[in-house]
Design a protein that fits this description.
This protein is an alpha+beta fold. The chain folds into three domains: 149 residues, PAS domain (Beta-Lactamase); 85 residues, Orthogonal Bundle (Helix Hairpins); 152 residues, Histidine kinase-like ATPase, C-terminal domain (Heat Shock Protein 90), CATH 3.30.565.10. Helix content is 55%, strand content 16%. Strand 1 and strand 2 form a beta hairpin. It starts with a strand and ends with a strand. It is a multi-pass membrane protein.
């Protein structure tokens, strides 16, 4: 872009646009969903993995304690059932072998002097009759406690072990301490296998969800892309394009709003073209008359004694053009908020009576009957008197314009709580329902208006609408076949 500094020199300024890491809504949605998915799976994987590890260690420990209890019960039967020690040891060794095979465990039985009585597994020959160097742990078992720990016997094993200690009672005295050792790597191996299975399941699930997220994001952003393209076409003046609506979600509602906007813009554009055509027609008629009369006066076609008559016609046509121009300018200022209200107290009934006097000529020409039904003689209201006078004038002008010959005009006021309702009615043709909402549009002018009146441009009711909108008052129309057409508005009474 190019600018001038205070010295008049031209300065070139280049706009720098930062490239976004995620330039499209699709990439943002996809990244967001995938980030949530990955973080969620990592979080639950970590929790499940730690929970399973604790569960499996506790599960193995419970099995070891249960087996230790069974082995201890075999020794107890020696005293209670008079069984031989040899048979008892046979059953103990058989159970120890099963335990060693199932858990890859090592089983020790230690006497009260800390000497090894039974040692299974690879250490049976090395550990037999050997005195153990862990008196604190052994003493704890001989006190009658069941222990479970993952430390204390490192010097006897190449890898960490899970150890369970259980007292063996013969008679009423603890004679032996039973220790079962299971290698922690064996336990960890099972845990790692479960983690691998879980990781594969997570990977497969993530892949499936990724595909679903990808197509879901595509499906969500597809109508938005279409809306973007159609919005650009609407911006270029192509109001006939519409968005395909499928569903009732927020995106579909946005598409419906875009279609509604396109329809309204199309209608406004049509009314604008009609307005321009109407203005051109209304302006051309007085200009043609002015040009014709002035030319005729200048070239002598119109004799001097008739100059005054035709100059008055030229003056009237000029005044009509000025009124048209002033109406357009006033409407623009009202819509832009450049015409502030000047509210004060005034008598609305007196205003209505004064304005009705302006229609005495048309009343006689159309042989119209005028009924005035006022709530009371005087009624003070608080509003902008100049603008309200314009409202009443425009509504009366509209009523006299469309009233049928020998018809009826009725003006009524009704007091309701803190409001005064003003009704202006006229007999004659009803306004079709489809046109009732259009008569308030800026560029709308029904063909009926052009056929009956050549003096207006169809913006009188728009000025009425904008004025009542500024006053925050109600304005409406009631028109049914066979009934009088009624325009009404409200004012705040004093």
């Amino acid at each position: 872009m190019e600018y001038k500094n205070s010295m008049g020199s031209r300065i070139q300024v280049r706009e720098i646009k930062r490239k976004s890491l995620f330039p499209t809504l699709f990439s943002k949605l996809l990244t967001l969903y995938l980030s949530i998915l990955v973080v969620t799976f990592i979080f639950f994987f970590a929790i499940f993995s730690n929970a399973f590890q604790k569960y499996y260690v506790d599960y193995t420990e419970n099995i070891m304690i249960k087996q230790a209890k069974l082995i201890a019960s075999e020794y107890q039967e020696v005293g209670s059932m008079k069984q031989s020690l040899q048979k008892t040891l046979e059953r103990v060794f058989l159970r120890v072998e099963v335990l060693d095979s199932y858990l890859d465990a090592t089983t020790w039985i230690v006497d009260r002097d800390y000497n090894m009585v039974v040692a299974s597994g690879k250490q049976d020959s090395m550990m037999m009759d050997r005195k153990l160097a862990n008196p604190e742990v052994i003493q704890e078992v001989f006190k009658g406690n069941v222990i479970s720990q993952q430390t204390g016997f490192e010097q006897y094993f190449a890898t960490p072990v899970l150890t369970v200690g259980y007292p063996i009672i013969l008679g009423n005295q603890i004679e032996y301490a039973l220790f079962i050792h299971t290698p922690m790597p064996q336990i960890q191996k099972i845990i790692d296998e479960v983690r691998d299975i879980l990781m594969k399941a997570v990977f497969i699930t993530t892949s499936i969800i990724f595909v679903l997220i990808y197509f879901m994001s595509k499906q969500m952003t597809k109508p938005l892309k279409q809306m973007n393209q159609i919005a650009k076409k609407i911006a270029n003046g192509d109001f006939e394009k519409r968005v395909s609506i499928d569903g009732e979600d927020e995106i579909s509602q946005l598409g419906s709003s875009l279609n509604y906007m396109a329809g309204e813009l199309d209608k406004i554009e049509a009314n604008r073209k009609s307005f321009i055509a109407n203005v051109s027609h209304d302006m051309r008629s007085p200009l043609t008359s002015i040009q014709g009369f002035v030319t005729a006066i200048l070239d002598g076609t119109i004799p001097p004694e008739k100059h005054e008559k035709y100059l008055r016609i030229v003056l009237n046509e000029s005044q009509r053009m000025i009124k048209m121009t002033n109406d357009i300018l006033e409407l623009n200022k009202m819509e832009e908020g450049n015409l502030p209200l000047k509210k004060m107290e005034f008598d609305i009934h007196e205003m209505i009576r004064d304005l009705l006097d302006n229609f005495e000529q048309v009343t006689k020409e159309k042989e119209v009957k005028v009924n005035v039904i006022l709530d009371k003689k005087d009624q003070m209201v608080f509003a902008d008197p100049e603008k309200i006078a314009r409202v009443v004038q425009n509504l009366l002008d509209n009523a006299f314009k469309f009233v049928n010959k020998q018809g009826t005009i009725e003006v009524e006021t009704v007091a309701k709580q803190h409001k005064i309702w003003v009704y202006i009615r006229n007999s004659g043709p009803a306004i079709p329902e489809e046109e009732q909402k259009n008569i308030w549009e800026r560029f709308y002018k029904a063909d009926l208006s052009r056929g009956k009146d050549k003096k207006g441009m169809g913006i009188g009711l728009v000025i009425v609408k904008e004025t009542m909108k500024q006053h925050n008052e109600e304005l409406g129309i009631i028109s049914k076949e066979g009934e009088m057409v009624t325009f009404y508005f409200t004012l705040s009474k004093i």
